[in-house]
Amino acid sequence: MTRPSPPASRFRLVPMAPRDPREPGRSASVLELFFDLVFVVAVSIASVQLHHALTEGHVLDGLATYGLVFFGIWWAWMNFTWFATSFDTDDWLYRVLTIVQMAGVLVLATGIEPAFTDQDYTLPVIGYVVMRLAMVAQWLRAARSHPSVRRTAQVYAAGIAAVQVLWLAQLALPEAPGMIMLVLLIGAEVTVPVIAQRRGSAPWHPHHITERYGLFTLILLGESLLASANAIIEAVHDTDTLGPLISIAALTFVATGALWWIYFWPPHHRAITGAGGSLRYAYVHYLVFAAAGALSAGIEVEIDALTGHSELSSLAASFTVTVPIAVFLAGTWWIAIRDHADPLVNTVVPVAAVLVLCDPVIPVPVSLTAAILVVVVIVLVLHPPVSSTAPPPSDAARTWRRGPART
């Protein structure tokens, strides 16, 4: 369903009023889908660099850099996604500012390799600041357009802008203090929404926002399949023993299919009916997304170990596959499954995550991981989500209906 467009101004701009959180037929726009594809470019490059770091034996440095780079990708994506569910006007200025953010992520992607190899975060920080300043402009526009969200939007704009100044100042610091500053700035970034929400919440559309998360998860899982397939095709030319490669190919296919099934089993829209649930859903997805992106790197590391091109032992290489799977399982259970499952499901999924995590110490890790995931899917098929009544309106929806927040 297409919503009626408010009258445009003389600059052909649509007033940025909050959208109805119960709007029927709300789905991801073509601009949002385009936006996701650009971000997946950065995720793909980060996964490739993580693969190289792990294969060369730089495990701790590789994971730390991957975590920092992925934060920039995820946080910029998430902030736009939640803003869009509340204020998407789809006029020319909104589209231009969105495309500016897309340009910023491409700049960030260009700097991912130097971040891994030389600990040089200059380009990632510049690209990140470009994305965030575009969001400042969006929040200022929202603050000007509608009194019900003015104070909240102003806090968002001021908080984001202040932190961006600190990001740029961080570039002038020496390496060691600069790394400490990076961590502190990440803490500052995640604090801005918490502070802004105290001024009132913008309305979010539960079905739309969870569809956006689901689509991004699909793209990340598809990236794992593509990267793994390419690695296996290349490895075929370097070895005459195809049995282990066939096992890895089967694990990749089964694991990706099972993770898709598990992720989309629960009713995600019921997990964000309040401010606390929405923050948990938004923030824990960092682990789910990062794990999905790291899975392709782990598969490639495992293939390198099988073909003798890795500095890691077979045991360590196996962990690069099982850890992302276990984190994905545990994160999905925490944010979406546990509140809508019976006791058996709430036992099987966390236990499965632990078993997968410990799987490399078992003599047949590849087969056992696949078997565990298949068992989880079978349990989910036999035990559908616990039915419940329609969720109550979100805090944001109530705030939107009763008008401007009073402070």
Helix content: over 70%
What is the count of distinct domains? Answer: 2
Q: What is CATH's topology name of the largest domain?
A: I/LWEQ domain
H-E order:
HHHHHHHHHHHHHH
Q: Quick summary of this structure?
A:
With 407 residues, the protein is mostly helical.
List the helices and strands and how they pair.
Layout: H1 30-55, H2 59-87, H3 92-110, H4 112-118, H5 122-145, H6 150-170, H7 175-197, H8 206-236, H9 243-263, H10 275-306, H11 314-337, H12 343-358, H13 365-382, H14 395-402
Can you offer a commentary on this structure?
This protein has 407 residues and is an all-alpha fold. The protein folds into 2 domains: 30-197, no CATH class; 206-382, I/LWEQ domain (Up-down Bundle). It contains 14 helices and no strands. Helix 12 (343-358) packs antiparallel against helix 13. It is globular, with a radius of gyration of 22 Å. The model is unreliable at 389-407 (pLDDT under 50).
Tags for this entry?
mainly alpha, I/LWEQ domain, 407 residues, disordered C terminus, globular
